[in-house]
Design a protein that fits this description.
Blueprint: H1 8-17, H2 22-40, E1 43-46, H3 50-62, E2 73-77, H4 104-112, E3 115-120, H5 154-161, E4 167-172, H6 178-184, E5 187-190, E6 210-215, H7 218-228, E7 252-255, H8 266-281, E8 285-288, H9 297-312, H10 330-341, H11 344-356, H12 362-383, E9 389-393, H13 408-412, H14 419-424, E10 428-438, E11 441-451, H15 456-465
Parallel strand pairs: 2-3, 2-4, 7-8, 7-9
Antiparallel strand pairs: 1-3, 4-6, 5-6, 5-10, 9-11, 10-11
Helix pairs in contact: 2-3, 9-11, 9-12
């Protein structure tokens, strides 16, 4: 096996034993990037000091340090701040912005000794489910370059799947880690809301967004999560691990059968049922669960998310930082800057959000979406009392072709199974469940688990069992 194809866990063992060095491991990833990134467009920038970081990690190990991530080459999504590095959120608005401080997750990874290979491509300001909305070109799926990798963390997912890194960070607002993980055949996880600090991560919709991890195995994803999770004084929503009571394993998997009629491809459903049988062979019991408000999740999400996005993106006005265009007066400056700096999908969501928050429409749309959110949260809490996790396909189909979902509503429907966990704040994870054939190629599909708040342990246990 090539070094860049190792899992984080296996690489950590080899690094600890002295069988390999971080410099060798990092060089293998850089060689793979040089060979495939032109085709995939997964990285927007490869850092020029990656080998120097690796050498420093090797020196730390020689001095006696032994963190599992020490010397591990990782990729970082382009909306996560690394001091002294550009962070553009794949937007012309921030094309030349250089971060002045580290995100909390970056601080923790630096303390662990991880090596940062570069910043990965994404949908602009994390808005999209295909990674076709980047201002710097679409990312391609490593399994079939005519198809999307999923979004918005498609660059990170493609980098992991193509072995251009050993693991990666992404962000997940409505499935933006889990959907590309499913399309690219890797593991993608978002935590309980507040489980990982958002400090230093560009906001798209603050009450929905969380940093997430992408890796080749559930074990690797758990290692990354445990390294970056925890209380942070810079994010008031974070919490200590002991806030939520520890749950005893019940060996029960909840299955929301009523949701499985949501237009799932027949062969994807077959893979899902085969995965459930694997659990049964390991002594798990399948339990039908009912979530009556689940069909409302997508509609509620596409009211709450653009409402928050329109507010969060108001700061990009051409005055304080980022792109600044002049057009004769202040209003003209705003219009010119935001018109040129934001892509079509970002402008669409800003307008939608402004509309649902406007006088006369707030109660008709936004207030009702918040009510649906509260109802969904209560229903998931009730359903999870009798099972370890709730299982369903991550997506209804494998990765679509580039341009196939160009109509906005068709693109939004890709999120139908993933948005609920962001609305309710539950932790969720996508793990590969096999492949389906399209046009002679085997394409990955994913199985999604949702666990109770704070029960990431149960989430990873289910994923490792599969």
């Amino acid at each position: 096996m090539k070094l860049n194809e190792l899992t984080i866990t296996d690489a950590s063992k080899k690094l600890a034993s002295g069988e390999i060095t971080s410099v060798q491991l990092t060089q293998a990833c850089l060689d793979a990037i040089a060979a495939r990134n032109t085709e995939l467009n997964a990285y927007l920038e490869v850092f020029d000091d990656a080998l120097a970081q690796a050498a420093a990690a090797d020196a730390r190990r020689k001095a006696g340090e032994n963190h599992p991530l020490l010397g591990t080459p990782l990729a970082i999504k382009d909306n996560i701040l690394i001091e002294g590095r550009r962070a553009s959120a794949a937007s012309k608005m921030l094309e030349n912005y250089v971060a002045t401080y580290d995100a909390t997750v970056i601080k923790k990874l630096k303390e662990a000794g991880a090596v940062f290979l570069g910043r990965t491509n994404m949908d602009e300001f994390a808005m999209g489910g295909s990674n076709e909305n980047s201002a710097f070109g679409a990312v391609k799926n490593p399994h079939d370059s005519s198809r999307v990798p999923g979004g918005s963390s498609g660059g990170s997912a493609a980098a992991v799947a193509a072995h251009l890194c050993l693991g990666a960070l992404g962000t997940d607002t409505g499935g933006s880690v889990r959907e590309p993980a499913a399309f690219c055949g890797v593991v993608g996880m978002k935590p309980t809301y507040g489980g990982i600090s958002r400090s230093g991560i560009m906001a798209m919709a603050a009450s929905l967004n969380q940093c997430g991890v992408l890796a080749k195995t559930a074990e690797d994803a758990e290692l990354l999560f445990n390294t970056i999770a925890g209380l942070d004084a810079l994010d008031s929503q974070t919490f200590d691990a002991g806030v939520y009571p520890k749950r005893a394993a019940q060996k029960k998997i909840g299955v929301p059968r009523a949701l499985l009629a949501q237009g799932i491809d027949a062969d994807v459903l077959e893979r899902f049922e085969a995965s459930l049988k694997k659990f049964q062979s390991q002594g798990y019991t399948l339990v039908d669960v009912d979530i009556p408000s689940a069909p409302l999740a997508l509609a509620a999400y596409y009211i709450i998310m653009p409402a928050e996005a329109s507010t969060d993106l108001a700061r990009y006005d051409g005055v304080r930082y980022g792109l600044s265009l002049k057009a004769g007066d202040l209003v003209g400056d705003y219009a010119a800057t935001r018109g040129a700096g934001f892509g079509q999908e970002v402008r669409r969501r800003i307008m939608l959000g402004t509309y649902v928050l406007s006088s006369g429409y707030y109660d008709a749309y936004y207030a009702k979406a918040l009510a649906a959110r509260a109802q969904l949260r209560a229903e998931y809490a009730k359903a999870l009392t009798g099972v370890d996790v709730i299982a369903m396909p991550t997506t209804t189909s494998p990765a679509p072709k580039l341009g196939e979902k160009s109509e906005p509503l068709a693109m939004y429907l890709l999120d139908i199974f993933t948005v609920t966990a962001n609305i309710t704040g539950n932790p969720a994870l996508s793990v590969p469940m096999g492949t389906v054939e399209r046009e002679g190629k085997q394409l990955p599909v994913g199985l999604q688990f949702t666990a109770a708040h704070g029960d990431e342990t149960g989430l990873f246990a289910a994923a490792k069992s599969l």
